[in-house]
Give the backbone structure.
Amino acid sequence: MIYIGKIVSTHGIKGELKILSSFPYKEKAFQIGNHLYIDSHPYEIKSYRVHKNYDMVTLDDYHDINEVLFLLKKEVYLSEEELSLGDDEVLDEELITYEVLTKEGKRGIIKEIFQASETNKILRVLFDKEVLIPYRSPFVQIDKKEKKVIVDLIDGME
């Protein structure tokens, strides 16, 4: 199971739930017909929309606020099979297990992946010393099949 976010409140009286999530592949996770797992129980997504910073869903055949109150403050998960990531898409939890190689042959490990800004993630990689590398840049190539990250270090990164 993959952690997606947390239900923080209801919205309106028709059983809509507000989910606070920073999950990077929301467009794949919150598709109508997918199943969200709450307390290990699957709930089918019947509707989805974005409202401010929240992902709004209705689940199963719940049409009233009183029917969904038991779900408040619960964590939401998705099965890996339903996520169906592309060849160039990797979850941070998986990427952190990949080996890092430079084009010069140095080997390293990813110590951390963190959000530097709303749109920029940084890889904290340990070679001989620690190096910060922008994720999703021309300096980083991901080989999902070999479980490797190939980086092109430029002056200033080392």
About this structure: The mean pLDDT is 86. Residues 2-83 form a domain with the Elongation Factor Tu (Ef-tu); domain 3 fold (CATH 2.40.30.60). The longest strand covers residues 41-51. The radius of gyration is 19 Å.
